[in-house]
Amino acid sequence: MLLQSINGGIRLNNRKLKVGVVGLTVGASHVKDYASSDTVKEIVLCDVDESRLKEIGDIYNISKKYTDFDKMLKEENLDAISIAVPNFLHMRLSIQAMEAGVHVLCEKPMARNAVEGRKMLEASQKYNKKLMINFNQRFLHECQTLKSVIDEGKLGEIYYVRTQWQRRRGVPWWYPLSSGKEVCGGGALIDLGVHVLDRAMWFCGYPDPEWVLGNTFCKVSKDEAARKGIQNFELEDMGVAMFRMTNGVMLELEASWASNRENEMITTRIYGSKGGAVLQREIGAVNDACNTVFLEIGGEVRNIPLEEMKISKKPNVRQAFLDAIIKDEEVPCTPQQGLKITQMLDMVYLSAENGTPVKFE
User: Fold this and answer.
1) 3-class DSSP state for residue 280?
2) Could you name the CATH architecture of 2-134?
3) If the chain, 361 residues long, is cut into consecutive pieces of 10 residues, what is the mean pLDDT of each piece?
4) What CATH superfamily classification does 137-314 receive?
5) Which residue in 72, 180, 295, 303 is deepest, having the highest Cβ count within 10 Å?
6) HSE (CB half, 13 Å, CA atoms) of 200?
7) Domain boundaries, the chain
């Protein structure tokens, strides 16, 4: 709740929001968070799959359900909406919602490419509506804790970051992959890489990229795609890149849907002039995390478990979006940041296509 000053006194602002969610496969987690929020008064659902609509509606006792997005916007006076549909629809539905006066939380990636992302940013400015990108990795407690350590200057000047989301086998075959880049915009880089690239950039203060050398591969998944009836599977099952930032920071990115390795791993490693850090989570038979800060104390580098560095718990990504609306503050995951990530991924794909480094203009 928001505290407001009225004639020198303080009162609680009990404003509650009417929120929509479109796309209930990925959007189910959005519905769950909104249903548990004391700042949401009503939830409206939209999906082309009527059985999915009924399933999610029954779980959360939601009566208002639509299969037509246009009709929902026309009939429901929404304050905010989560856009959790396939990537090719992000731009159109986000702009349509903002034009209708609705604040938007758009799932990652912001768009298939930077051209679409820029149009979304321009729409948010034109219609004066908040546009937030669902970069939920930032809101993990370990990420929030490490960011506070960095902001306190304990790591000194960050000069090199390596960030990865590598799967052993984990192509999202449930997704409409048969249409490839037309629907998705890309493969593992735009699906998984976008998450760990954003959190790495966030740790570094979102510096401007200068150039990138990248490559993409589809070496593991083609046979499985053919067995599933997906011919000419064209999306990368692995992508890698090395970025140089204008401030000299080097950032290495790896992402894979399928690779011949140990269990799935999500890792971000940071090197600073005063200290370093690693966030590492293994996903598999044993879910294990190793989150550690390395600080030189008394002439000796010591390993300090991140859990020993206590900070207060922050709201989840959906609540942070709602709070920004109620308090009329800037959203924490801005469209400018979403656009920068999209531009960086565009340049990786261009570097892979050309076989040369690409300079950012």
Assistant:
1) strand
2) 3-Layer(aba) Sandwich (3.40)
3) 38 79 98 98 98 98 98 98 97 98 98 98 98 97 96 97 96 83 93 98 98 97 90 92 98 97 95 97 80 92 91 92 97 98 98 97 83
4) Dihydrodipicolinate Reductase; domain 2 (3.30.360.10)
5) 72
6) 35
7) 2-134, 137-314
